[in-house]
Design goal:
The complex is a heterodimer of chains A (264) and B (272). Chain A has 264 residues and is α/β, with parallel strands linked by helices. Chain A contains 7 helices and 11 strands. Chain A has a single domain, classed as Rossmann fold. The radius of gyration of chain A is 19 Å and the shape is globular. The chains are: A alpha/beta (264), B mainly alpha (272). The interface between A and B is medium-sized, with 36 and 29 residues.
Chain lengths: 264, 272
């Protein structure tokens, strides 16, 4: 059984078709990097897997069932818009706030909840962050706590939306390596969206490349090629390999497609 | 002793009981208000309440009820608009001044009491009757029960709105319900420190508590404790000095917050 299966999936935001006719089968335990330019539908695709966005055509199967049925098996790290680094709350309470946070009533933890919080903090090597306020954490440390939160409740799938955004290069490598370690020790299926290809090289098993409504899924060497990307972008694209890094540029050379880190 | 002398007077007993009830509500609700970065909303709600309070006086009803009704309406509106209010300082400011202006107009028609205006604006905890204490208790129970019912999703939605939304929390519903709780708390706080000084009870203790402790439970308890301590000491000092309790409560709030800034500033330097 596939962890995630998309059959002819079309996703729309209002009137705008974001992705159309996407087919993909992702096996349990795979680490999939989702790449593509801004607005190519990376976040929308994750939200469809979560069951928050319903396909206007086609079908999504998660662990053999419809998305909503597997909600408990999915850990989610949303793209961060709010400034959590201003929060004068310690790490443990930050993680704890997500435990059954959707229910009414007073926030209360039982012994099993506390054990789960200790487990996820341990997984992300974040025990030292438990008693420190978020105001005194680096971007990399905040991402570790967000990852811990996504691991609450022992999910089988992990959806990480731009966890490298606004991180320095040195923290990026650390976050990617940590996600890989956790993924391998727990046998998780990971969908990891990113702006940039290079931090994920050598870590992801396959890449799902999105551009202009279409998708290509496969090994990096099969997808990040001039032929495949030129077809996706509908303009000639060149793929350069320099010192183990990959640089994607338009064939005319005047534009880096996404080699540069983009903070927008 | 001093304590027994103070408590010989019924108006002092009423002041202490009313102050305690209101301080507990303000400390608890204020903690979430500051955590959500909505300190100004409490201030805005009380201003809107002024028109309600003076309108009630004109209609021959106790000002508390006019205040509660109007802060509730404004609270629902603010909760519904939520983030869309950010950056609309001009529109919000103009509505606030209209509310204060209406209040002035209503007071103008109700010519007999100039002291009424001062009491509404700056509070008059020593004028609270035992009958009014029961009203305050009822509102306090309502406000705290509401807060208890929503506190878990409220905390979740405050800290991590994107994840909360993905897990099925309606951010708008939580926001509206919370602003209703805030509206009740603001109406209560005005009975002690008045419309203009609501910050002293709703924001000061909570902000100080969040600087002193990064633990959720400790911070919440500390916020309530500081609000109560500030109110008790303020009333007692007013009795001794014959200065207005509202002055002492705001002054002690300044001391508590200033102390927290100094203390955490020093601690931060020690860590480096």
């Amino acid at each position: 059984m596939n962890a995630i299966e998309l059959r002819g999936v079309t996703l729309a935001r209002g009137d705008r078709i974001v992705l159309s006719g996407v087919d993909a089968a992702i096996a349990p335990g795979e680490f999939i990097g989702i790449l593509g330019p801004n607005g190519s539908g990376k976040t929308t695709l994750l939200q469809a897997v979560l069951g928050l966005v319903r396909p206007s055509a086609g079908e999504i199967r998660i662990l053999g069932g419809p998305p909503r049925a597997s909600a408990a098996a999915i850990g989610y790290l949303p793209q961060q818009r709010a400034a959590i680094s201003d929060l004068a709350m310690r790490g443990r309470d930050f993680v704890a706030s997500a435990v059954r946070g959707e229910r009414w009533g007073v926030p209360r933890l039982n012994a099993a909840d506390r054990a789960d919080i200790a487990r996820v903090l341990d997984l992300v090597e974040g025990e030292a962050l438990a008693d420190r306020p978020l105001t005194r954490m680096s971007g990399g440390e905040l991402q570790r706590l967000l990852l811990a939160k996504a691991l609450l409740g022992r999910p089988k799938l992990l959806l990480l939306d731009e966890p490298l955004m606004s991180l320095d290069l040195r923290f990026q490598a650390g976050v990617v390596a940590l996600v890989r370690r956790v993924q391998q020790s727990l046998g998780l299926t990971v969908l990891f969206t990113a702006h940039e290809l290079n931090p994920l090289l050598g870590v992801m098993d396959r890449v799902l490349y999105l551009a202009y409504g279409h998708a290509a899924l496969g090994a990096v060497d099969d997808v990040i090629t001039s032929a495949v990307l030129s077809k996706l972008y509908r303009t000639p694209i060149e793929v350069l390999r320099v010192d183990g890094r990959i640089i994607v540029v338009s064939a005319h050379g005047e534009m880096d497609v996404h080699a540069h880190h983009d903070h927008s | 002793m001093l304590i027994t002398t103070i408590l010989d007077y019924e108006f002092m007993r009423a002041a202490f009981v009313a102050g305690t009830i209101v301080a507990i509500v303000a400390g608890a609700v204020g903690y979430f208000l500051v955590l959500r970065d909505l300190a100004f909303a409490g201030h805005a709600l009380s201003h809107v309440g002024f028109a309600g309070a003076t309108g009630a006086v004109l209609a021959g009803v106790a000002p508390l009820w006019g205040l509660v009704s109007l802060t509730l309406v404004a609270g629902v509106a603010m909760g519904w608009l939520g983030d869309r209010l950010r950056g609309r300082d001009v529109a919000v400011g103009i509505i606030l001044s209209l509310a204060l202006g209406l209040g002035v107009l209503f007071l103008h028609f109700y010519t007999s009491h100039a002291t009424q205006a001062t009491a509404l604006l700056f509070g008059n905890v020593l004028g609270v009757s035992m009958a009014r204490v029961w009203d305050l208790l009822g509102l306090a129970v309502l406000s705290l029960a509401g807060l208890a019912a929503i506190s878990r999703p409220l905390l979740f939605a405050t800290i991590d709105p994107e994840l909360a939304q993905a897990r099925g929390v309606s951010l708008r519903l939580v926001s509206v319900l919370f602003m209703m709780v805030v509206a009740l708390a603001v109406a209560e706080a005005t009975q002690i420190v008045g419309i203009l000084l609501v910050f002293a009870l709703m924001v000061g203790p909570a902000a100080a508590a969040q600087r002193f402790s990064s633990r959720f439970r400790t911070g919440l308890a500390l916020s309530v404790a500081l609000a109560v301590a500030q109110t008790w000491a303020g009333i007692a000092l007013a009795f001794v000095t014959d200065w207005p309790p509202s002055f002492w409560i705001t002054f002690l709030g300044f001391i508590a917050y200033g102390g927290s800034v100094l203390a955490t500033g020093v601690r931060r330097r020690q860590n480096i």
